[in-house]
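2024-03-11 09:14:02 DEBUG pipeline.ingest accepted 1 chain
2024-03-11 09:14:02 DEBUG pipeline.ingest length=178
2024-03-11 09:14:03 DEBUG pipeline.predict start
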Amino acid sequence: MHLTMPTSLISDNLKLVSILTVETLRALSDDKSLTLFNMIALNMSRDSGVVMTTLGVTKKQYYSRMNRLVNAGLVMRKNGAHLLTSLGKVVYESHMLIGHAVENYWKLKAIDSIETSLADQDIYANELERIIDALIEREKIKSILLNHSIPSGQNKKVDNELVLSNLKELAHVSSVAN
């Protein structure tokens, strides 16, 4: 027996995930908060005075940023120390992946340019894979590029109408909240 979730529950879940994603990104949205998050991840945040001096923030600014990280579920306090939560660890690794992608910005732009110029679909996949393999060193980035290089008609895992509807609803909720 296969159970399916009603569309309204899926829609509500996507809205909640979108809102939580926005809150997570908002908690990391300025350079000092992101640096604080990195310091916690690298276990460099034991002395709040040193952290405040390093970041160039007041006590109030430090605690405001730390509170946002805790409320977003990225950081927790244990035995007087701030540590990444499980979500924080995943977000940190994703942040590192973004950093590696940015380091390869021009190579990724070259791949985009080549991808748009390859017209013959028979050689498209093999040639693109060879180019990506030659240009990109990190396996995770290669995997992302190769898995997303499937022609759009063959990669329909998401109901685009449902996603679009949820994005419009989220935009409405966000505009009302602000």
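2024-03-11 09:14:41 DEBUG pipeline.report The chain has nine helices and two strands.
2024-03-11 09:14:41 DEBUG pipeline.predict end
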